Amino acid sequence: MNLNPTIEALVVNLDNAFHGRGWQGTTLLGSLRGVTAAQAVWRPSNGRRCIWEHALHTAYWKYIVRRTLSPRVGDAFPRSPSNWPRVPQTPDEQAWRADISLLKTMHEDLRTVLVRFDPRRLGRVAGGRKFNALTYIVGAAAHDSYHTGQVQLIKRLMNNHL
Question: Which fold has domain 5-161?
Fold first, then answer.
């Protein structure tokens, strides 16, 4: 990459929380690798989130951060409701793969915006929101890491339950 060093560091941070080999251990995409649709909808107990919901939730927040940094007219997240989109009515392997693909697309869209982002805007409050752009970008990576832990915990509980 031939980027501003700050932007490059932010891109690396975002990518290391999402895919590849993160120094911290499992990445978000790594935590989803090998999970079946049936496993993705398993809940530790009533009222608790499933892995599929965590995947959609992280996709949604990648979309929100991308939109905060670079809004596009008419651009809407393809799932509802916002923040914690519903698992499809038919939670089969095809739907699960489609939602993993959506997560990857939201990551790539955010990454594309970040690569083109003007580093002079990092300290500015972004898109009429509460925080500056830097906070949202760093937060997106932290958010992936947080939900990676949630997914890993659900997988451990599921393995102990079965």
Answer: Four Helix Bundle (Hemerythrin (Met), subunit A) (1.20.120)
